[in-house]
Amino acid sequence: MHKLDFSTADVALIMGVTRRSVQLWLAGASPPPASVVMLLEGIFEGLLPMEWVEDKIIASMQIA
């Protein structure tokens, strides 16, 4: 998340969870699901284009 310069709000929107969930993961109160780790690693490694991430964020904002 930090390597990608994503905020807690960005990760929450991409993953479809609350910001509080992301905050709990960062605080170590609960581990992030493996799917979250894999998705963020895939984005960082360039396996998922940033355009997809941007589209996901925009779509999530339109739903909310």
Task: Describe the protein.
The protein is built from 4 helices and no strands. The protein is mostly helical and 64 residues long. Helix 1 packs across helix 2 (19-27). The model has no long low-confidence stretch (mean pLDDT 89).
Total strands: the figure is 0
The mean pLDDT is 89
Domain unit count: 1
What is the molecular shape?
A: globular
- Listing every helix as H and every strand as E from the N terminus to the C terminus, the arrangement reads HHHH
- Main sheet specs: none
Helix share, percent: 55-70%
Strand content: under 5%
Lay out the secondary structure.
Elements: H1 8-15, H2 19-27, H3 34-44, H4 50-63
Could you give a short description of this structure?
The protein has 64 residues and is mainly α. The protein has helices at residues 8-15, 19-27, 34-44, 50-63.
Considering the chains and any ligands shown, give keywords for the structure:
64 residues; mainly alpha; globular
